[in-house]
Amino acid sequence: MVKKTTSKNITELARLSSRVEELESNYKRVLADYQNQERRHKEQQVNTIKMASAALIEKLLLNLDSLEMAQTHLKDRGLQIVIDQLRATLGQEGLSVINSDDQDFDPLLMDCTEVVPGKKDIVIETVSRGYFLFDKVLRPAKVKVGSGA
Amino acid sequence: MSKIIGIDLGTTNSAIAVMEGGTAKIIPSAEGRNTFPSIVEPIKGLVGDVAKRQMVLNSTSTIFSVKRLMGQKFTGKQAQKTKEIAPFEIAEGKDGMAVINLGGKTFTPQEISAKILQKAKADAEAYLGQTVTDAVITVPAYFDDSQRQATKQAGEIAGLNVQRIVNEPTAAALAYGLDKGKNETVVVYDLGGGTFDVSILELGDGVFEVKSTNGDTFLGGDDFDRRLIDHIVSEFKKESGVDLSLDKQALQRIKDAAEKAKIELSSATETEINQPFITQRDGQPLHLTMKISRAKLEELVDDLIQKTIEPCKKALADAKIEKSHIAEVILVGGMTRMPKVQQVVKDFFGKEPNKSVNPDEAVALGAAIQGGVISGDVKDILLLDVTPLTLGIETMGGVMTPLIERNTTVPSSKSQTFSTASDNQPQVEVHILQGERPMAGDNKTLGSFVLDGIPAAPRGIPQIEVTFDIDANGILNVSAKDKATGKEQKITIKNATNLSDAEVEKMKQEAEKYAEEDKKKKELVDKRNEADTLIIQTRKVLKDAGDKFGADAAKEMTESLDELEKELKNESATFESLDTKLKTSTELVQKHAEALYKAAAEKDQPAGEDKPAEGPKADSDASETKSDTKPAEEGEVVE
Question: What tens digit of pLDDT does each residue of B399-453 get?
Fold first, then answer.
């Protein structure tokens, strides 16, 4: 009778201690998730503030492209001032041009849209400018690359 | 054990996800996007967006859609069809399997897929800040053993222990949360960038069985884009006589614009394509401006959408299942965002498809959930329940004031302070409600109790703090405490979250159905409460400082209030009738209060700049009449 109770207690104890272990591991797991989340949240917050305007600037780039295309055709001094103004404003927000003309083709910064006669793997013409927002590529430059022929 | 990531190794795009804090989350690629192109340049080791950008330059060494070659014999139909369209060289390798010849080297499809998986691993490690060694990878349901084996090998080459290969539709069903122990048959309709799959799944006791699968490995969003591009080019040609398809740069711009337009037309019914200076004719620039309606796009791609129906029919026939037995149709793949696709699916299956999960991410999310199940992450955390319906109490005028909103994760606790509705009110009744309707009577009563012994005080003065506390087991404790006396009453309600799905659904539907009617009812009550507050407050002011207004003004106000009160007591008073009378009274009170304040200010002017003690009092009382209406409506407990 006494023995039976003891063995029952032991099984109960084993069950409980394994349950404690399981819960402890789950607790740690959740805590770790939480801490990681915290860390990432902080990083993201810094990033969000810096890159908050990224989506808007990316849309505005299409307008800047159009203005530049118009200028290529019209060569109007007034329009040029407008373009420079817009560029300066975007520059204040962290936008800078990716230098692509005559450069080695770099897929990290550029998007090749056409292969044309010219020096091999060298950018022959920039079709639409690429831009950095701070140190990140906001939009790769669209370029024509030389075929070597 | 480290985290197990889920990878959707797609034909056109791939995605990565992981379990975090009990839910599956997409891991953004290094480029900051939720999916990345399944494109590889194996010699320079470029994968994803970067590989895509140099595809035009290195077309013969850039490999895309390699999934189509996984575990395929070179002589097989699939390999031969891919060979026709691929600019890279597909050849016969060991054991007659299809391989890719590139710059004098031979790459197996496994090796190419491994590059994609390596990127997934690296991006996941960067995101998680820890080494990733294990993964769950998804494959189409129709993949045979050798294709699954090839996928597993790809994982191993990438340095991943492939814990499991999961069927894409199964993963999608997991992401949609269809694993909760119900026995049912579901359809997974997956229209992606390059392929279409439909699968019939039978769910039961956590086991997913694919009953049948069908599809078209060469039908997807890219075909839709092409239709739109062709349309734009031909319209422009009609208009201007210039064939833009001959101008690569113009075509590139149209391609980008068409993709954008297609996406916009999923939410808008019309969009405009604006591409100035697209080309030149006789030295003059030509601009492309074109309006495209959703109807036009639907017309252009109608046959493509209809092409998905035949595989659906076949899948049903193979599974020997009637449409009426389908419990749920879930949508996967970016193209299912198109309203017309959703409509066609709905018409065919006679059921509103479920689109609650982002269709681009569903498969990866499901793979992550499977990973969580394997690592034991999921088991315990899933027990965290949410409240299926809003919990609140009844306040003045029979309004339901919510304390714990629907879908709040429990355990959760919330307190709010209320007050009395009439002067010297000795007790308040706390009537606990559950439901989404704004009027108390339309919701379910969970219980009620009375807090008495409130010391005599004008209405709105006593502070009664009501606390709702719901524990992880769904047990709700509600307490009310009079802050002045510290007297407290409480009640415990078991199974506050324990409602059957049908009950919850019914209550939600009712809330939607009666939304308009309820809103009107609530507005009427709000107006009544507003009128009631104005009457009581103004009468109080008149009693305390009535002589300062002058007999005429006081009489005029009293009469106006009496009239308002009469309307308030009239059972058939409408919102409009009350509103008119209330406005008249409010304006009158404001007018007199203003006059009183002015008079007081003038009287005190010679005495100095300081404002008189009495003047502002009258003013603040009058303005309180206005600002008090809101707390009164929300914050008072009905006796």
Answer: 899 998 876 666 678 889 998 888 888 888 899 988 888 888 888 888 888 888 8
Instruction: State the residue range of the domain holding A108.
Output: 96-149
Asked if A108 has any chain B CB less than 8 Å from its own CB, the reply is yes
Residues on chain A touching B383 (C-beta within 8 angstroms): none
Q: How many CB pairs under 8 A join A and B?
A: 62
* A30 with B381: Cβ contact below 8 A: yes
How far does Cα B42 stand from its chain's mean position? Answer: 39
Residues B210 and B229 in one domain: no
ipTM: 0.73
Q: CB–CB of B5/B124 below 8 Å?
A: yes
Instruction: Identify whether B25 is a catalytic site residue.
Output: no
Whichever domain contains A113, its CATH number is: 2.30.22.10
Contact A112 B53 (CB under 8 A): yes
Domain for residue B629, yes or no?
A: no
Same domain, A62 and A104: no
Nearest CA in chain B to A122: B57
Instruction: Tell how far CA B91 is from the center of its chain.
Output: 46
Question: Catalytic: B168?
Answer: yes
Q: What is the dihedral of CA B623, B624, B625, B628, to 10 degrees?
A: 140
The catalytic residue among B41, B111, B179, B190 is B190
Candidate from A29, A36, A108 with C-beta closest to B128:
A36
Measure in Å the smallest separation between the Cα of B20 and chain A Cα atoms: 6
CA distance B227 to B223: 6
Tell me the three-class secondary structure of B2-59, residue by residue. CCEEEEECCCCEEEEEEEECCEEEEECCCCCCCCEECEEECCCCEECHHHHHCCCCCC
**Interface contact A66-B277, CB threshold 8 A:** yes
- Do B277 and A73 count as a contact with CB atoms less than 8 A apart? yes
Number of structural domains found in chain A: 3
| Nearest residue to B478 (alpha-carbon basis) of B466, B494, B465, B488 | B466
pTM for the model stands at 0.66
Q: Assess whether B256 and B180 both reside in one domain.
A: no
Q: Please indicate, yes or no, whether residues B232 and B215 belong to a single structural domain of this protein.
A: no
Question: Which of these three, B492, B525, B552, is where a domain ends?
Answer: B492
3-state secondary structure (DSSP) of residue B83: helix
Q: Exposed e or buried b for every residue in A91-103, given b needs 16+ CB within 10 A?
A: eeebbeebebeeb
Q: Which of A21, A25, A28, A36 to mutate to test the interface with B (most CBs of B within 10 A)?
A: A36
- Residue B403 structure tokens: 């304390």
CB pair distance less than 8 Å for B53 and A127: no
CATH at residue B403:
2.60.34.10
Residue B209 dihedral angles phi and psi, to the nearest 5°: -120, 125
| Whether B526 contacts chain A with CB within 8 A | no
Residue B285, chain A, CB below 8 Å: the answer is yes
**Residue A108 domain-assigned?**
yes
- Kindly report the nearest CA distance between residue A131 and chain B, in angstroms: 14
Whether residue B592 sits in one domain with residue B474: no
* Residue B357, domain extent: 5-220+302-385
In tens, the pLDDT along B506-535 reads 777 787 888 888 888 888 888 888 888 888
